[in-house]
Specification:
By secondary structure, the protein is mainly α. It has helices at 7-41, 64-88, 96-112, 114-119, 123-147, 154-175, 182-190, 192-198, 205-226, 230-256, 261-285, 289-313, 319-327, 340-361, 363-369, 381-397, 405-430, 434-451, 459-477, 481-501, 506-527, 532-551, 559-576, 581-599, 607-626, 631-652, 658-678, 684-703, 706-734, 739-753, 755-771. Helix 2 (64-88) packs parallel to helix 5, helix 10 runs parallel beside helix 12 (289-313) and helix 21 packs antiparallel against helix 22 (532-551).
């Protein structure tokens, strides 16, 4: 049987147990710290897994080693700053002996301090002091140049100091193998030395600088690829990238600025050496993004190296074709036993150079397309045409080596586009006569449309090429208007034929034919010296033709594009007739007829609203041209069609309320007259308006229609008030000022006394109105 101790005894036992646990925890934490120090003292191999950082204890957010490293880093930085301040500020107050003694003693002490620290296992402290010591050696070198070697050129001294410091730090790393900082620092400080030495070489220093940079980059690349210490590899790799980029830029500048074959060849040697280094890097890495990037860089540098010497002897406008020819060389690597990454890099490098050449040659076809607006003045028309032709041939043969059908299709489409661009630009390149150039460009359109029958070449790509080329040919033919009478009908026939032959292309072909037809109308009007309004009336014929074509069931998916094209042509026609109001009224009426005919087709009922608007606008413009100022003349032409449509709608669907059926028409017929009647001093308009409102009210009451009854009655009451208004004003003016408030109060009292009966009467009136149509 278990006996529970008294509370005081149990509390004593718990406190004793907690003290035992605290003591054991302290022992384990101390042992853990010693084990971490032992592990940090060992230099793990590169392939060892990353250490898991120790978890922070319950008393803080950072572990002991983290705090220790931070304190050591801050201490080293502060000591380095203090040393720098001493060297720059307090140096002048000491003599030569004092200066040497202070810096030498401080450097020696700091560099020797890792010896006892490493014996005691304080590796982090030793690392910090070693870094401080190496910083002091840099200050020693600076001080030595300022005091004893001031006559030595700065770049030469810097090169020697970098080399000496690299040797000293490397020896320091050999002496203290437990330290990890000296070796990467030695690699980093050694890399600028060759470039600094070469930059002070006098004549030919630029070539020496590029050679030094590339040589240093090659050595750094070798260290990054073959050494095993991770910190040294990363330092060497980063330095190699920086030095190599600078060296390539300098060598490239030497290549493009070479004034003779000798200088170009020497620059080509530098670029070729850089290409070899990049290729070796890709070969060593084998796979991954870095390997592919190095392979691409190798290919581009090889092209730059091969194209440099020919560039020095070619005319300036033929430099890009020369580089393009050299860009064909990497394509030969596809069939070689080189590693896959090198072959892929060669292909991408060649493609990149070809893309740059395409951008250089692209202004030629663009200028040919814009020739009617701005005649081209390109200094390299012939070489640009050659570049486009070569690229077209390459794209045409690329399907033979493409990896899959998607890439083969892209190659065929690219060949089609580039080939059409070359042919279209030929009249500009050879300065052919205008008629011959137009004939060539129409043939380009015909050829592109012929390719729409070949599915492998991409029918829509061919159609886009034909559309662009036809636009340029049409614009080129307009300045010579008689030539347009031949070119534009030919283009209309071509696009109509291809739309009929290949119905899937009709959504682009038929609108193009309509656009060219509209342009033909404008050209004919210009040849006949017709006014713009007459040209606008003729342009409505294109809109009518579009409506007829869209009405055909065979038009299919081209219906909407054709209708949109016709609508745009109609809008342009109306804009042309704006200066002549009578002609504008006729054009609006004709456009209304076309819209009304379109509304008769299934699914095109909304066009009827547009027809009504156009008819009303036509009537208004005609009335304005006649100088009519009577508002009813403008309101009734709009109201009558609305009322007619409302009657037809009610006959077809008896459930339609009278408000949507008759409300718009009655409002358009009565309200403008009501506004005019209130401002009219005569009696004729109010009388006629009252009679019309009375007729509408009676018709609404007889037919039991809500909209005519309310609208007619309202207008009738307001019209009657207009007649009584002068007398009411006089009566109100004769009454004393207390009479209106008294009358209003009396009215409220009467309403209050008969409130319930009035509500019942109001409900009856509302129900009566609700029962009406």
């Amino acid at each position: 049987m278990t006996t529970t101790p008294p509370p005081a005894e149990e509390l004593r036992l718990i406190d004793a147990e907690l003290r035992t646990l605290d003591a054991r925890r302290a022992q384990l934490l101390a042992r853990r710290g010693r084990l971490i120090g032992v592990l940090w003292a060992a230099d793990p191999p590169v392939s060892s897994p990353a250490r898991v950082p120790p978890a922070p204890g319950p008393g803080g957010e950072a572990s002991g080693p983290d705090v220790q490293n931070l304190l050591l880093l801050l201490g080293g930085l502060l000591l380095g700053i203090a040393s720098l301040v001493f060297t720059l500020v307090a140096w002048g107050s000491l003599g030569i002996g004092g200066r040497a003694a202070v810096l030498g003693a401080l450097t020696a002490v700091v560099l020797a301090s890792p010896v006892p620290l490493l014996r005691r296992g304080l590796r982090a402290t030793a690392e910090s002091l070693a870094g401080l010591g190496m910083t002091l050696t840099v200050l020693d070198a600076y001080a030595l140049h300022r005091v004893a070697l001031a006559d030595v050129p700065a770049t030469t001294y810097a090169a020697g100091a970098c080399a000496l410091l690299a040797a000293v730090w490397a020896g320091y790393g050999l002496l203290f193998r437990e330290l990890r900082g000296p070796w990467p620092a030695a690699v980093a400080v050694a890399q600028p030395a060759p470039a600094l030495w070469a930059s002070d070489g006098g004549a030919g220093s630029t070539w020496l600088l590029a050679a030094a940079l590339l040589t240093t980059a090659a050595l750094g690349t070798a260290a990054a690829l073959w050494l095993r210490v991770a910190s040294v590899r990363w330092t060497a790799g980063v330095g190699a990238c920086v030095q190599g980029a600078c060296g390539v830029l300098v060598a490239g500048w030497l290549s493009v600025s070479a004034d003779g074959p000798g200088a170009a060849f020497s620059a080509a040697l530098l670029l070729a050496f850089a290409a070899v280094v990049a290729a070796v890097t890709a070969w060593r890495l084998r796979q991954g993004a870095a390997a592919l990037a190095a392979a691409v860089v190798a290919g581009v540098l090889a092209v730059a190296a091969a194209g440099g010497p020919p560039r020095a002897v070619l005319p300036p406008e033929w430099e890009v074709p020369g580089y393009l020819a050299c860009a064909l060389l990497p394509l030969g690597a596809v069939r070689t036993p080189l590693p896959r990454v090198l072959r892929e890099g060669a292909l991408w490098a060649s493609a990149g150079v070809q893309g740059a050449a395409l951008l250089w040659a692209l202004p030629l076809p663009v200028a040919a397309l814009l020739e009617p607006v701005a005649p081209p003045r390109l200094p390299h028309e012939g070489p640009a045409a050659v570049v486009l032709a070569v690229l077209a041939v390459l794209a045409a043969v690329s399907p033979a080596v493409a990896p899959d059908e998607a890439w083969r299709a892209r190659g065929r489409r690219t060949a089609l586009v580039l080939g059409a661009a070359v042919l279209y630009a030929l009249p500009t390149v050879f300065e052919l006569p205008r008629e011959a150039g137009l004939a060539v460009r129409v043939l380009v359109v015909a050829g592109a449309l012929a390719f729409t029958r070949r599915t492998a070449a991409g029918p829509w790509t061919a159609m886009v090429v034909a559309l662009v080329a036809s636009g340029g040919a049409a614009l080129s033919s307009v300045p010579g208007q008689w030539a347009a009478l031949v070119v534009l009908p030919a283009l209309i026939a071509l696009f109509t034929a291809v739309s009929l032959a290949r119905r899937p292309l009709a959504p682009a072909g038929l609108p193009a034919a309509l656009v060219h037809a509209a342009l033909l109308v404008c050209v004919i009007a210009g040849l006949r010296d017709w006014e713009a309004s007459t040209a606008g009336l003729l342009l409505l014929g294109v809109t009518a033709a579009a409506a007829l074509v869209a009405a055909r069931p065979a038009t299919g998916p081209a219906t909407v594009p054709v209708e949109v094209t016709g609508a745009v042509a109609g809008a342009c026609a109306l804009l042309l007739t704006l200066p002549d109001p009578p002609v504008l009224a006729l054009a609006l009426a004709l456009a209304g007829v076309i819209a009304g005919a379109t509304a008769l087709r299934p699914g095109r009922r909304p066009a009827g609203y547009a027809a009504g608007v156009l008819f009303v606008l036509a009537a208004w413009v005609r009335l304005a041209a006649w100088g009519v100022g009577t508002p009813e003349a403008y309101a009734l032409p709009a109201a009558v069609p609305m009322l007619a449509l409302g009657v037809l709608r009610r006959r077809r669907d008896a459930s339609v309320s009278s408000w949507p059926a008759y409300g718009p028409g009655l409002s358009a017929a009565l309200l403008p007259g009501l506004v005019a009647a209130w401002a009219d001093p005569h009696w004729t308009r109010p009388l006629l308006l009252g009679l019309a409102a009375l007729a509408v009210t009676v018709a609404g009451a007889v037919r039991r229609l809500r909209a005519p009854l309310l609208l007619g009655g309202t207008v009738l009451v307001l019209d009657a008030l207009h007649e009584l208004a002068p007398y009411l004003v006089q009566a109100l003016g004769a009454l004393p000022r207390w009479a209106p408030p008294a009358a209003a109060g009396l009215l409220l009292l009467l309403l209050g006394t008969t409130y319930e009966r009035r509500l019942r009467d109001a409900r009856r009136a509302r129900e009566a109105l609700r029962r009406m149509g």
